Amino acid sequence: MTTITAKPLTPQAFAPFGTVIARRPEPDVMINQGLCGRHHALALADISDGATGISLFDAEPRSLPYRLDMVERHPLGSQAFIPMSETGFLVIVAPDDEGRPGAPLAFLTRPGEGIQIARNTWHGVLTPLAPPGLFAVIDRIGDGPNLEEHWFDRPYTVTAK
Amino acid sequence: MTTITAKPLTPQAFAPFGTVIARRPEPDVMINQGLCGRHHALALADISDGATGISLFDAEPRSLPYRLDMVERHPLGSQAFIPMSETGFLVIVAPDDEGRPGAPLAFLTRPGEGIQIARNTWHGVLTPLAPPGLFAVIDRIGDGPNLEEHWFDRPYTVTAK
Fold first, then answer.
1. Could you say which of 2.40.50.180, 1.10.10.10, 2.60.120.480, 2.60.40.1180 is the CATH number of the domain covering B2-159?
2. Can you state the subunit structure given in the record (chains A, B) (predicted)?
3. Residue from the list B43, B85, B86 with its beta carbon closest to the beta carbon of A53
């Protein structure tokens, strides 16, 4: 089985696949009488039609090494994942190769970081690595086919250093 | 100074002011091969124009009793607050009374809950009660006047039982 080593998430490495939702070195603006730093517009929802909604995902924590069987993508909208706990999680993405996923990449977020997966970008399912596995998800709410799955003939193993 | 006693947040009590973003008793659907419960479309962004964006707010924790000097509202869009830690926070809202805020109400969320303040609804600024005070905020990104503040002639004191 091919092994993928998860790397720390950086905005640069993740840019082809989406956006890291993390504090900038300094807030863009201080609000609320100086008691709150606003890190402004870190990601914008990219929704084709329908509504932009907030759902909660309550996912079972996984452990490494992780067996990657499949990736999926959402042609009609971006999908952001915001952890509701101070924990990092595993993010798996893959470039598109003529309608199928190419070689996957894996990243580890740090506590206090979320991500937005770009519209129509191959990615693994939500994989928390610690409890509680509770995330807010900002994505498209609407009818129509917004899920494409790809199951790998040969699964991958994801590890970390 | 008039005292307001914060009550536990419930969807019913909060309904005139917005939406509680919390897990339902059962998920709407199990996804990801049964490993993730989706609590679907708990809130929908209500944005007049411009984009729907995700920002991070890094707010200083407050303590009770809390002195409430002002409330604000955003005429052009809803604003959702998602805690990125397993902590509750203080939520203050007020009905509108001919263009000015009426008597404020205060609520305490539980860990694992977020809220969406409805468009043009009077509310207090973000008031975490414990560190780290880090929240994802889903609101309107765009130009134009989207902030109205009201400073009270006589501040309120917010306590909890």
1. 2.60.120.480
2. Homodimer.
3. B43
